[in-house]
Every structure is written in C-alpha cells, then in structure tokens.
Inverse folding.
C-alpha cells in the first residue's frame, strides 16, 4: 500500500483504540433515562403448566417460557423486575428476559422438586442463575446446562430444588419452595460476535450483488456486441442524406463486428490516407498521419457540427456554408499537397 | 358575578387555557433549539428541506398544552400525532421516500463498475464501531444499533431503523443524521487528505463503460432479488427503492415516476420533518442521550468515511487499475453530496481529474450498504 506510513499507523491505532475502549471501562454506565425495554411477562396456565409470554430485551418478537414441576404442585409463577434484585456483581444487560419467582407447594417438608423450564429463547450458552437474599452472594449460577429437546432450537433447564436448600429463597423447610432466578446470556460476547458476523455479512451480501452484476454486465456487453455485429457492413452514404450516428466501439476496433456506415467525406479522408500510405513505408509521414487523423476525427465525431446544422434547418445559415467551405478547403490542401518522401 | 368570582375565573382561564403560566424552562430551551435549526436551515441552507420542517416541529410542539402530539380523551390522536402514527410508527414515510429516491437514481455509474459495491460495505465500518461504543456508554442493544446507523448518512434508513428499534431516540437520531449529512463538505475533506497522499489523489480512473437501457432496466429486479433473498428484513426499504428505479428505467410510467420523484416526495418530506421534530418534546429530549448521540454520530461519520477510503486502499492492493482513494469517502450515502466532495478534492489535486461519475458508484453502493446494514440490525432483533 502506498499510503503514507505514519498516517496509516495512526489510523490503525485510532481504530484499535476505538475498538478496545468499550472493554477498558466495562462497568461504567452513563446517566440514562427510563428502562423502556423492561420485559413485561404475561402468564397463563394450562393444566399443570404455566407459560409466560414476553418480549425480551434486544428483541422485537415475543418468546414463551413454560414452567412445570415434578414433585409438589406448581402454584404460581410471577415476573420480577431485575432492577429490584440488582447487585454490583451482576450486569442487568445479561438478563434479557424477566426474572421469575416460581412457587411450588404441597411438598413433604425437606423434599425436593424438579422444576422444568422450557423455551426456544434458550441456547447452548444460556445459564440459569438463582437469586436468594438469604445467601452470599445473592446471585449464583445454578450450574445446570440446558438440554436441547427439539430440532427447532428448544432447550430446557431441569433444576433440582430442595425445600429449605440454597435455591429455595424462602429459606425455610416448610413444604413449600420459592425458586427465584432467570436465564443469563453473556452480553458482550453476544454483542461482539453478532457485530462481526453482521459487518462481514454486509461484505458478503454486497459481494454477491457485485458478482451478479459483473456476470450480468458481461452478458449484456457481449449481447450488445453481437447486436451491433448484425448491422449492415461498410456503406458509403452522402453526409447530407443521413442523421449523425454515434460511433460504435466494435466498428473502431474492427475485430469481428462489421463497420458502421461511413459517410462520404470520411470515406474520402480514409481513401486519402490509404493513398498516401500506399508506398509501403514502415513509418507514415506527417501528411499521411494528418489524413488518418482527419478521417478518424470525422468518423468519431460523426460530423456533429455540420450535421446538427443541417438537420436543424432546411436552409443552412451562412456561417454553416462558410465553415463547410473552410473545412473542404483544408481537406483539399491535404489532397493537393505533393507527396514528400524523404 | 362578584369581583372575587371574576378574578377566580380569569385565574382559571390563565392557568388552564393559556400557555404562559405552563411554560417550563425546558420547553423554552427546546423552542430555542428549534429556532437554531430554523436558522441553520434558512440562513445557512443546511439540508433545508428536512431541517426546516424539523425545526418548526420542535418549535411548535414545545409550547405548553398544545393539542398536537397527544391523544384526545376519546383516544383520537392529535394532528401531528396522526402524521407520526401513520407515517413514522407504521414505517410508511421512510419507505415512500425510498420509492422517490429510487425514481431519482441513475444506477449507471454503479452498474458500469460493480467493484465499488465493496466500498459501500467498507464504509459501514463506523456503524458497527459506534454500536459498540454506545453500548459501553449504557445504551441498550436496540438503541446502540439505531445510533450506529447514523454513520450510514442515510436519513430515511436512520428514521426507519430508529422508529423500529428505539422510537424514543427518533428526533435525536434524525437530527444528527441530517445535520452531519449537511456538514459533509466540512467533515470529510480533512479525513480524505489525512488518509491519502497527493499522488494517490491524482490517480486517474478509466472512463466508465456505457450502460445500455436494457441493463439499467433489469438492474432493479436483479439487485432486489439478490438483496431481499439474503436479507429479507430489508425488503420494505429495498423493495420500494428498486420499484421506484424500475418505474424510472422502464420509461413507460413517466407520470408515476415523476410523481414519486417530486410531488409524493415533497408531501412525505413535509410530514416526516414535522413528525420527527414533534418527537422532541422537552420532557423526552432533555437528557444526556441526545448529546451522546450527537457526539457518537460525528465519530460514526468520521469512521465511515475512513472505512470507505481504507477499503479503496486495500482494494488497490489487488487491482491492476488503481482506484482513486478519494472516491472511498463517497461510500457513506449522503447522495450526491459526498460524491461532489470527492470530486472537488480530486480537482484540487489535479484540475483535469473528473471523479464525479466514479464517485457516484460508491455513493450509490453506500445507499445499498446502509440499507443492508439496517436490515442486518433489524434481523438481529427478530
């Protein structure tokens, strides 16, 4: 890269600093307004199962959590605001759904209950954290891994909670369990991961579009070439009898396509050039070059000046006559000049 | 009626039916903010088509007890709330603006040099870096995404994404986006000169090939199909954009194309500007977030410009025919302002180097790139 070395280094450093800045002060928070993304779960009961429907943080679509128990009776499930259980060691951003309080009754005192929480919102890296005001620290990882139960990405947590145990937040052996907690997903790794995927995703999308356009462009160019090749071959027509035609690339290159019609004065200039160069010298002289240049100029410009004047009016203005005469005289001089072969 | 009753009545009228006693300091401040934007639009001509209605929206809605952005007792939305609800909240206006933009756009420079699409992708660098930066400052994921898109320098895309993800930031994001778009000639040139050497600025690019009418006609169909297949979330924006362009290139619906470019575009711009301005009520707007958004918006814009130029430098490592890195700055959308800036910077280095058509390619790629970035961010929250 020929970019100035210092400038380039400075740029790279700036980008690196901007990239690492977020990680240097991970726990700082700005003064922000109200929490508008707070999940607000709605509960419904269907037999022994209670379901909660809510829109989690960083989502626009709702998700469903199902709660059922094995051992005891699932009495109630309630949603709790994470902010009410916020502690300095926990980042609320990592708890994208609500916190749930699951109440299980009708247990033999001291017995255990199996609480099963199912959702398609869980993934392989989701952890279920429990909250207990009677323990230190208050927030703990349940250390239970989610199990995938269907191919559509539904996972479930199966949590063994003992009456009066560390995950029973009422803290008493009373035949009832209050299990409080919620699913936790790593925030920064998600944010960074999705950032990288999506940034390169844009490159991918636009690259696919670029490849499509390059391919389509080649097809169109070859199609246009073929089409221009179907036109009639070299035909000399009087310049006054036809409209100015745009120069055709294929005609100029003269590869496979037939040349476009050539006007009489262009043809005359070409003839002059052929005549002058007819002696077979390797390097054409100045007159030959002038004639070739005139021919090319007339051909490529399509006589715009003269023809536009012709086509705009039936009777050309006096300046058109004057100009045409001057051009013709100039050409005549080329024709009449003695061939100077040195 | 006794004198006391008369005084009481007057007092009641003054308190409940006039604005003066209800005017708060915050509202007065926002009225001044509105006047500043009106000044910028009228006197300085900074994006006047948008900043004038936005400025007036801010000015008008911050007068106390005005029946403009609320709901009546029967739940009927008030005047500007109607514009906002059906235009912005329902995501109609940004898409209609894209329809008009499509009808105005000649994709010729992009079709003739599709490689510049990569520049449009590289110029989205700021969108993602800002997204991270705002997260660090306590913004939520949705807010961060909506702030990040400001760097794409595409007003309708910013409004569309913000209305979808963080509607409470709509005013600040739209204002930041349009303000920085107006300031492209001030922001971009120093970065362009910093990241390029004089020799690089003098690089001449080969004349673009002629694009046939048939190719232009098929482009919106091909591009729409590919992009919508890959990012379905961007279908509303991209679909309208390409539909507008198809109307233009087909040549058979000149009246519709003309309406989309002019009358329809002007109508929705009025409603959009007023609605966006009216979201900036003092009680919603006056906190740290708008200030941070303006700060991050500028950083975002700078990084996007840098991203575009650096992408050209990287591409030049692999290309036989080098590109002038100045055109990389046009990878942020801001059509056609950023292309003009690239062109004028090129002319300063070489008075015979006409870059405008070469810069239009990345400029259009930037529009597609920012819409694609918006689609990616929307899809992230589905």
């Amino acid at each position: 890269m020929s970019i100035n070395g210092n400038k380039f280094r400075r740029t790279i450093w700036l980008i690196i600093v901007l990239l690492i800045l977020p990680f240097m002060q991970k726990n700082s928070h700005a003064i922000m307004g109200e929490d508008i993304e707070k999940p607000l779960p709605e509960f419904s009961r269907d037999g022994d199962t209670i379901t909660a429907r809510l829109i989690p943080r960083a989502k626009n679509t709702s998700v469903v959590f199902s709660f059922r128990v094995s051992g005891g009776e699932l009495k109630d499930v309630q949603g709790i605001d994470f902010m009410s259980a916020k502690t300095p060691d926990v980042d609320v951003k990592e708890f994208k759904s609500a916190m749930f309080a699951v109440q299980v009754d009708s247990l033999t005192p001291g017995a255990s209950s199996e609480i099963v929480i199912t959702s398609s919102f869980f993934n392989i890296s989701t952890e279920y954290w429990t909250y207990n005001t009677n323990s230190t620290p208050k927030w703990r990882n349940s250390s239970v891994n989610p199990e995938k139960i269907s191919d559509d990405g539904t996972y479930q947590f199966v949590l063994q909670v003992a009456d009066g145990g560390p995950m029973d937040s009422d803290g008493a052996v009373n035949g009832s369990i209050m299990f409080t907690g919620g699913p936790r997903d790593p925030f920064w790794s998600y944010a960074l991961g999705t950032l990288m995927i999506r940034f390169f995703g844009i490159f991918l999308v636009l690259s696919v579009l670029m490849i499509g356009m390059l391919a389509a462009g080649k097809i169109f160019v070859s199609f246009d070439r073929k089409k221009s090749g179907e036109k009639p071959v070299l035909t000399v027509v009087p310049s006054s009898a036809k409209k100015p035609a745009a120069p055709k690339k294929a005609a100029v290159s003269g590869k496979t396509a037939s040349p476009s019609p050539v006007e009489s004065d262009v043809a005359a200039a070409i003839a002059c050039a052929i005549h002058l160069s007819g002696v077979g010298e390797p390097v054409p002289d100045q007159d030959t070059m002038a004639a070739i240049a005139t021919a090319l100029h007339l051909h490529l410009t399509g006589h715009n000046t003269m023809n536009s004047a012709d086509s705009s009016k039936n009777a050309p203005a006096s300046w058109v006559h004057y100009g045409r005469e001057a051009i013709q005289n100039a050409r005549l001089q080329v024709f009449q000049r003695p061939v100077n072969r040195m | 009626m006794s004198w006391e009753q008369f005084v009481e009545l007057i007092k009641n009228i003054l308190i409940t039916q006039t604005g003066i006693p209800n005017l708060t300091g915050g509202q007065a401040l926002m009225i001044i903010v509105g006047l500043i934007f009106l000044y910028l639009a009228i006197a300085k001509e900074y994006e006047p088509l948008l900043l004038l209605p936005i400025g007036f929206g801010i000015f008008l809605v911050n007068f106390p007890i005005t029946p403009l952005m609320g709901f009546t007792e029967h739940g009927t939305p008030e005047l500007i709330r109607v514009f906002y609800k059906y235009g912005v909240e329902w995501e109609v206006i940004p898409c209609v603006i894209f329809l008009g933009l499509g009808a105005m756009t000649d994709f010729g420079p992009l079709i003739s040099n599709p490689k510049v699409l990569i520049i449009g992708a590289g110029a989205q660098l700021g969108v993602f870096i800002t997204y991270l930066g705002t997260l660090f400052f306590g913004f939520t994921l949705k807010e961060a995404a909506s702030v990040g898109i400001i760097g794409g320098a595409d007003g309708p895309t910013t409004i569309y994404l913000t209305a979808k993800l963080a509607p409470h930031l709509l005013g600040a994001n739209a204002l930041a986006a349009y303000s920085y778009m107006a300031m492209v000639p001030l922001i971009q040139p120093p970065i362009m000169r910093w990241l390029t050497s004089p020799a690089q600025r003098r690089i001449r690019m080969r004349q673009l090939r002629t694009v046939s009418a048939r190719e232009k006609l098929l482009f919106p169909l091909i591009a729409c199909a590919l992009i919508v297949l890959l990012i379905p979330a961007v279908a509303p924006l991209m679909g309208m954009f390409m539909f507008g362009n198809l109307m233009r290139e087909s040549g058979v619906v000149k009246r519709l194309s003309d309406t989309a470019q002019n009358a329809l575009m002007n109508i929705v711009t009025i409603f959009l500007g007023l609605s966006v301005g009216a979201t900036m009520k003092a009680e919603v707007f006056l906190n740290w977030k708008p200030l941070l958004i303006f700060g991050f918006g500028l950083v975002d814009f700078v990084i996007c410009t840098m991203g575009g130029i650096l992408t050209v430098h990287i591409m030049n490592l692999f290309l036989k025919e080098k590109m002038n890195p100045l055109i990389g700055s046009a990878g942020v959308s801001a059509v056609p302002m950023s292309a003009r800036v690239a062109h004028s910077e090129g002319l300063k280095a070489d008075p015979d180097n006409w870059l405008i058509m070469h810069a239009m390619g990345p400029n259009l790629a930037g529009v597609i790139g920012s819409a694609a970035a918006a689609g990616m961010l929307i899809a992230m929250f589905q």
Notes: Chain A touches chain B through 51 residues (CB under 8 Å). The helical segments of chain A are 5-24, 187-229, 249-253, 264-276, 286-301, 304-312, 318-336.
